[in-house]
Design a protein that fits this description.
It contains 18 helices and 14 strands. It is elongated. Helix 3 packs across helix 8. It is of the alpha/beta class.
């Protein structure tokens, strides 16, 4: 058999095929990462579905390879396969969103397999059209495969680190479809069948409707009622940040916090304010994770705090912060230094930095990479950056293992609702100390409590009563703090989290 396609052209086409295959994989990774609220296994399931589809497509391609006649017919068949495959690829995201809002989003993996099967047709057909069955077949196949790998690497890098920083997921999907369609048309000498062109236009238009509510459907799932819309969506290479109409902030589909600084009796916001109940002096603070900015705003306005270093991985949160007056002052507060970096990496790069408090309103313990902020190794790193009586303070999100790990690293610990507070020096909330600080506390020049009014004095008294609420938090009654002794009795037998066992990520 003689080759039907010039070999140099085949190399370029192979690279383009790899580029598109990996670009779509990056798109689908975001979809399933968001739908799962960043559960670690989601990527593995998506990748397995995709690889299964590619394998099935490669097997199916054998039925397309024989008896195709002249070169033009072979190229036309390849162009049609390319167009159909990319039409199926653009539908994975919106159809998964539709499925999520009516059934279970996990059925979207079947769409990945189907689309992967169609994409899996392209590379074998290309090789069949470009490589003659002669003594050079092996070496030519290796070069075509190398070109495909180079294109795949470029596709993942450019899409993941470039296009996702500049484009929304719907815009990126339609851009990839447009590029693939233009390639298919040029491959067919702009002679794709009219029926295929019509079908492609209709499918692209049909995809626009669920794309308009893509993230709402993926996040609210079966609770989506058709009218729900986020107040703000910020997309970047780090992920997707959504803010609902009640100012609740979500990162990649998981709750991150609320844009609120008001302290009231029974409020969960007692947690950032309670630092001053256990220490007389808190001047230099490190915040790992800024998210909605509420906690950083509260701590930066602490009357004793002189400097806050706030390390945040995603600069998309700064876009959210500047949009809401409650926290926008962070961006101009001279006491606040915001650094875009990974918290663990920043600590390693600044081995001599010491802090009176290191605060992490850590994400849910079951999300991917959560162990990086909950492990024994990381907490030991944090411990080395504290002053002698400094405080480490992080969200355990009700994980007994995260609590037990903190007790393993630090000699003194207490729980504040679902947060572990740890130190090398004893810890105990003091009502009088806390009252002195709260009476001076102001957020953006406005007192936290209006002590000139009876209502304000009563509210502060109700908050101060938290000191007397010692016990183990339970569902429906979590407004408590827990002593080290009760922590030991309740969680002392839990397995610790390490970098090696990855905590809850795959369990």
């Amino acid at each position: 058999m003689t080759a039907k396609l010039p070999f140099r052209t085949a190399l370029w086409w192979s690279a383009l095929s790899g580029f598109l295959a990996l670009a779509w994989e990056i798109v689908w990774t975001r979809v399933f990462n968001f739908a799962s609220a960043s559960r670690a296994p989601a990527f593995g399931y998506m990748l397995a579905s995709y690889l299964l589809g590619l394998a099935l497509g490669s097997l199916w391609s054998r039925h397309w390879q024989g008896g195709r006649g002249d070169r033009g017919r072979a190229w036309l068949g390849l162009a049609q396969a390319l167009a159909i495959a990319n039409l199926s690829a653009v539908l994975v995201a919106p159809l998964t969103a539709l499925i999520a809002s009516h059934f279970a989003w996990q059925w979207g993996y079947a769409l990945v397999t189907l689309s992967g099967g169609l994409l899996g047709l392209v590379f074998p057909l290309l090789c069949h059209a470009a490589i003659a069955a002669d003594h050079e077949a092996g070496s030519r196949l290796s070069l075509v495969y190398l070109a495909n790998i180079i294109g795949s690497g470029c596709g993942s890098l450019l899409t993941g680190f470039g296009l996702m920083e500049w484009l929304s997921l719907p815009a990126l999907s339609l851009l990839l479809l447009a590029g693939a369609w233009l390639w298919a048309e040029s491959m067919a000498g702009f002679g794709l069948p009219g029926a295929l062109r019509t079908a492609g236009a209709l499918i692209a238009l049909a995809a626009l409707m669920p794309f308009q509510s893509l993230y709402e459907r993926l996040q609210y799932k079966t609770e989506f009622n058709g009218t729900m819309r986020f107040a703000k969506i910020v997309e970047s290479r780090h992920g997707v940040i959504t803010v609902d109409t009640n100012k609740r902030v979500y990162g990649n589909g998981a709750y991150d916090g609320v844009i609120e600084t008001k302290l009231e009796p029974g409020s969960w916001l007692v947690r950032p304010y309670v630092l001053s109940a256990v220490r007389d002096r808190i001047e230099n603070v490190l915040m790992i994770g800024v998210a909605s900015g509420a906690w950083t705003q509260i701590i930066a306005n602490h009357p004793q705090v002189k400097h806050v270093t706030a390390v945040e991985l995603s600069d998309g949160y700064l876009e959210v912060i500047k949009s809401y007056p409650e926290v926008a002052g962070l961006l101009t507060n001279p006491k606040v230094e915001i650094v875009i970096d990974d918290g663990r990496r920043w600590l390693r790069r600044h081995p001599d930095a010491k802090f009176d408090a290191i605060v992490m309103n850590t994400t849910h313990h079951w999300r991917e990479f959560a162990s990086a902020l909950l492990s024994k190794e990381f907490l030991t790193l944090v411990k080395g950056h504290l002053t002698p009586d400094g405080i480490a303070y992080w969200n355990c999100t009700d994980s007994g293992r995260a609590i037990r790990t903190g007790m393993e690293v630090f000699p003194h610990t207490i729980m504040v609702m679902n947060h572990c507070m740890a130190s090398n020096a004893p810890l105990k909330p003091d009502r009088e100390r806390w009252e002195r600080v709260l009476s001076q506390y102001q957020i953006e020049g406005k007192p936290v409590f209006d002590l000139t009014s009876e209502a304000g004095r009563s509210a502060m008294g109700g908050v101060l009563d938290f000191v007397s609420h010692e016990g183990v938090p339970v569902e429906g009654d979590k407004w408590k703090w827990t002593s080290r002794e009760r922590m030991q009795a309740t969680w002392g037998n839990e397995e610790i989290i390490t970098d090696d066992n990855l905590g809850h990520e795959y369990r």
